[in-house]
């Protein structure tokens, strides 16, 4: 027995090592609990994929990243030595111009922020589910996974700087990926061109939604799309916002080409050229907050902006008031066709409850009968005409004197009431 | 030809020894470079430096156990830098380390052409094992490009031509 182990010692060691690693793989693949996020609190590391596994990850990262940080820092130092101490031509002028630009942009940003807040309040009223980027942490890319089958980069910020798993990582050009594992002073970022990544995206023009993930060649592609002839190269791809990681509307890239899905005939894969340069990443931004938290400086800028806006509003009100006073003093023209608002009816032709005003029927008041009617009495007979003694309207036929005359019986005036003009507004009745 | 390939004399049979710190420093340096160089080279980083170091020490130490353990440790460290399961590269590198040491016992590995061929073949073997473990043992859907794997094998073969003589100079002479 002893000779057996002695003879096959090498092979036995190999088999034991392989067996242990296979068991380790089986344990890792056995369960994946996405509800348990990885956290690092001091040296206590509670990962998604098992304590032992992440300890190895932690050791590997802590073993490699200090050197990567040093190499990166050395390169930055050489660059900085040249750019900051040697090549300083026109720096003073540029600095002055930049300060002026910063002051102007700060106020513009505050004004835009104020408008954004107002927009968000309105969207909140309308139950919009939209998130905004409020706080980002810049980080330097210091290393990669070193494997072509794993599109992962390491950044020089970790839990000590407020990073947490599943935070979105972007550049000014577009999205990069998401934070996966976080260590005290470094973090692992899973890029969008990795085969295990996933992000909800939407094609800008056709509004077709899909899932973005990497392929074997390290290109991001949109999968789970039915064949659609409308998708053309050059169309922009944006984040859809439904994955709870990336805010909606961030640029992802442009459609490079459309291929047929080799496994599912009726589906296609849309190969995307990423907007961010994933191969040459240097500085990235980690979105650490999607809630509105303003810094002291931003709050001060916002107050300044509000004061400026308040002054503008006050000046406008003053101008309107002065114009109104001037209009009162000057003789104005009155439109004879304009509706008369002095009769107590609303000018817009509606009641307070919104119902249209029904014009009252026009009734000519009925005059009382005159006790002694004269020619001015309505319907009455001119006594002078009747007697022929007086009156300018003497007719030749009436010139014969009447010897007997009965005094005319006064008749009450019975004026004919005008028919009501119900549908005719008073202004138009003229 | 046979004299070239078989260890007929004592110098080729002896076990090469290196300073202890080198067993720590070189693997660590290769891990750091493997993680850092793709930032410079981008998608043209066709190399697997930890595998090269595993093969080198296994060939020259001529100890399968040593090669297996070194390959397993370096492979697991490589896996620790990825987001994947730990053990994929560990299995691949352990097998490569074991086979390298076994071959180093039987043939002379001083010749540069032999070293190139060995590096090329072991890098391809490592890729095959990684894909096998990922797709068959883990059941994960993994796409790969054979051209990339061939280029990586070729890159390792070329880098080995430079790296191996450098490491040869660090060995302890009697």
Relative helix content of chain B: over 70%
User: Which CATH C-level class of one domain in chain A is it?
Assistant: Mainly Beta
How much of the polypeptide of chain B forms β-strand, as a percent range?
under 5%
**Roughly what percent helix of chain A?**
25-40%
Question: Radius of gyration of chain B over alpha carbons?
Answer: 16 Å
The order of strands across the largest sheet of chain A is 3-4-7-6-5-14
H/E order of the elements of chain B?
A: HHHHHHHH
Instruction: List unreliable stretches of 5+ residues of chain B.
Output: none
How many distinct beta strands of chain B? 0
Largest interface: A-B, 52 and 50 residues
Can you tag this structure with a few keywords?
heterodimer, A: 430 residues, alpha+beta, Thrombin, subunit H, six-stranded antiparallel β-barrel, 7 helices, elongated, disordered C terminus, B: 174 residues, mainly alpha, 74% helix, globular
Please provide a brief summary of the model.
The complex is a heterodimer of chains A (430) and B (174). Chain A has 430 residues and is α+β, with helices and mostly antiparallel strands. Chain A contains 7 helices and 14 strands.
Structure, described:
The complex is a heterodimer of chains A (430) and B (174). Chain A is an alpha+beta fold and 430 residues long. Chain A has a domain of 199 residues: Thrombin, subunit H (Beta Barrel). Chain A has a six-stranded antiparallel β-barrel. In chain A, a hairpin with a 7-residue loop joins strand 3 and strand 4. The C terminus of chain A is likely disordered. Chain B contains eight helices and no strands. Chain B is mainly α and 174 residues long. In chain B, 74% of the residues lie in helices and 0% in strands. At the A-B interface, helix 2, helix 3, strand 3 and strand 4 of A face helix 3, helix 5, helix 6 and helix 7 of B.
